Amino acid sequence: MHSHFGVFQFKGTVTEEQIVPCFNTLQEMVGRIPGLLKLEHGPYDSPEGLNDSFTHGFVMTFDSLVPRAPTCLIPCRSM
């Protein structure tokens, strides 16, 4: 298995109601992307203060490195 970690830096004006659909869309990839087994997500909060302004994070678990490569090509969007 292979894990892929990603973070988001949502602008301060973005509400939780706007963030939820973003993670719902990511969650919908499970079962649609071959080899993507699960996705976990939530607020990114470093008790040590090391979150570097990132507000949320996610971990995708793949069955191997091969299916992970195409997900790295998904374009970023500004929100």
From TrEMBL:
Any Pfam family hit: Dabb
InterPro entries (alphabetical): Dabb (IPR013097), Dimeric_a/b-barrel (IPR011008)
Ranges of residues in domain Stress-response A/B barrel: 1-79
Name by which UniProt lists this protein: Dabb family protein
Organism: Larkinella insperata
Organism phylogeny: Bacteria, Pseudomonadati, Bacteroidota, Cytophagia, Cytophagales
